[in-house]
């Protein structure tokens, strides 16, 4: 059995462009975001995708639709962005004025999710994915994608701070029969 995950961050939105933390606010892609998502179709064409999962947020679903994958995507609540709670719509610099030294991966968000909650969510979904065989596409968000990548290789959620996923980033995670350890094959912005 082998599993290859194509982890995709959604395309650009007005708030991702301006650096505003966006979790529950359901924004559409910008025209640039639409173009980024269409380019993903070219990059994913050679993959033999057997399952597709997308966050319930509009920006992830639009990115998924424009990537033109089959089979039809399944809505997966576990792929939603980190809930920023009281920090929804704020930029990091604004948050640090309120809470100096704030780090999302260590501190979480008041009235939002803690790092432990986001880690548990990623772990639950990873456990489900391990039972699959073949290529799987996941359409998600920046910070949750960083947590997912960290947890995939069994690092603490705090280490997700070391990853950066630009809009429409495509990351390849996997493991195979000759290498049962979960690995990051390719992580980055293209």
Written account of the structure:
The protein is an alpha/beta fold and 190 residues long. The protein has seven helices and six strands. The protein has a six-stranded mixed sheet with strand order 3-2-4-1-5-6. It is globular, with a radius of gyration of 16 Å.
Strand arrangement within the widest β-sheet reads 3-2-4-1-5-6
Distance between the termini: 29 Å
**Low-pLDDT runs:** none
The portion of residues forming beta strands comes to 15-25%
CATH architecture descriptor: 3-Layer(aba) Sandwich
What is the H level of CATH, i.e. the homologous superfamily? Phosphoglycerate mutase-like
User: Radius of gyration over alpha carbons?
Assistant: 16 Å
Total strands: the figure is 6
Looking at the structure, the CATH topology is Rossmann fold
Figure out the total of helices: 7
Order of helices and strands: EHHEHEHHHEHEE
Shape: globular
How many domain modules?
1
Oligomer: single chain
State the name of the first-level CATH class.
Alpha Beta
Q: On the 0-100 scale, what is the average pLDDT?
A: 93
Features:
6-stranded mixed β-sheet, alpha/beta, Rossmann fold, single chain, globular, about 190 residues
Layout of helices and strands:
Blueprint: E1 3-9, H1 14-18, H2 31-44, E2 49-54, H3 58-66, E3 74-75, H4 92-98, H5 104-107, H6 115-129, E4 134-140, H7 142-152, E5 170-176, E6 179-186
Parallel strand pairs: 1-4, 2-3, 2-4
Antiparallel strand pairs: 1-5, 5-6
Helix pairs in contact: 2-3, 6-7
